[in-house]
Amino acid sequence: MIIDGKKIAEEVRANLKEEIKKLNIVPGLAIILIGHDEASEIYDRNKLKACSEVGINGQLYRFNEDDQEEDVINCLKKLNEDENIHGIIIQSPVPANFNEEYLNSFIDPKKDVDGFGVYNLGLLASNIPSIIAATPKGILKMLEYENIAVEGKNVVVVGRSKIVGRPLALALLNKDATVTICHSKTKNLQEITSKADILIVAIGKAKYITKDYVKDGAVVIDVGMNRDEAGKLCGDVDFDDVVNKVSYITPVPGGVGPMTVAMLLTNVYESAKKIKKEGK
Questions:
Q1: Phi, psi torsion values for 181, nearest 5 degrees
Q2: Where are the domains of the chain?
Q3: What percent of the chain has pLDDT over 90?
Q4: In DSSP terms, which residues pair with 2 in a beta bridge?
Q5: Containing H/E element for 69?
Q6: Which residues are catalytically annotated?
Q7: Do the domains spanning 24-108 and 134-257 agree at the CATH topology level?
Q8: Listed residue (261, 138, 124) closest to 200, CA to CA
Q9: Which option is the CATH number for 134-257: 3.90.25.10, 3.30.43.10, 3.30.2000.10, 3.40.50.720?
Q10: What does residue 140 show for φ and ψ, rounded to 5 degrees?
């Protein structure tokens, strides 16, 4: 069965739009864009459009490659104090002369809607309610939507980035899954992945995972976004080779991608709701 991430995301966004109407405030998202990366420009336009559709006030703050980190830090400090801003993200990647992790450390944890800051990651590691990164949160939502239980399941995550692999593994552990993380240094990858009840792949290599890497009847979640030799969008999983061997699989495009945006919007809404409740 193909998991339709686009359809699930549309439902999430429609429900979110109605919930935002009940808030009596307009949630605000600030996006920090440093440099002129073409892909980042496209991502941010899509995020701003999505914000507008659900009733979030999205604002873009631009910096050039030759600006100073201090300029960005001063902007972040102002946004932390801005009562109309409930979420702040720094668009990745940033130019080489900027330290993304250092800049993220200046975002108020309550407004860290990407969930990349050490505070929110620490809460997640401690199984304390926290802001979870949008892609892992979207994957969990898809599994929940399809009634795919993770408790007691053998889940293999291929990829250890702090954007996907690490927070996802922690979130799955918190839901009582048995989790294995694989990465570029892992030996006998095929042997490990072929035992997974749920296989989640985020390695950035087009069509790397073939049917030989997959257990019969497994659930496969493809986080990859690549282009094949013909220039067509594809995932890290060879979809055509794998699809008839699995019970569930996400397509690329139309799988995890739409869910990531939907969950970012959800994080902004939840942050606004919490900040409003606290009266801050």
A1: -105, 125
A2: 24-108, 134-257
A3: 90
A4: 249
A5: helix 69-81
A6: 47, 91, 114
A7: yes
A8: 138
A9: 3.40.50.720
A10: -60, -40
Alpha-carbon span 109 to 118, nearest angstrom: 9
pTM of structure? 0.94
pLDDT tens for 113-141 read: 999 999 999 999 999 999 999 999 999 99
- State pLDDT tens for residues 64-107: 999 999 999 999 999 999 999 999 999 999 999 999 999 999 99
State how far the Cα of 257 lies from the Cα of 142, in Å rounded to an integer: 11
Identify the three-state secondary structure at position 14: helix
Over the chain, what is the mean pLDDT? 95
**Which residue type is seen at 254?**
G
Between 20-34, 38-52, 73-87, 232-246, the lowest mean confidence (pLDDT) is in 38-52
* pLDDT tens-place string over residues 168-222: 999 999 999 999 999 989 999 999 999 999 999 999 999 999 999 999 999 999 9
Q: How far is CA 32 from CA 36, 58, 73, 149, in A?
A: 12, 11, 11, 37
Helix, strand, or coil (residue 229): coil
Domain formed by 24-108, architecture = 3-Layer(aba) Sandwich (3.40)
CA–CA distance, 45 with 21 (Å, rounded to integer): 23
With b for 16 or more beta-carbon neighbours within 10 A and e for fewer, the 207-244 pattern comes to bbbebebbbeebbbbbbbbbeeeeeeebbbbbbeebee
The DSSP secondary structure of 82-141, one letter per residue, reads -TT--EEEEPSP--TTS-HHHHHTTS-GGG-TT--SHHHHHHHHTT---PPPHHHHHHHH
pLDDT at position 37 is 85
Gap between the Cα atoms of 94 and 147, Å rounded: 38
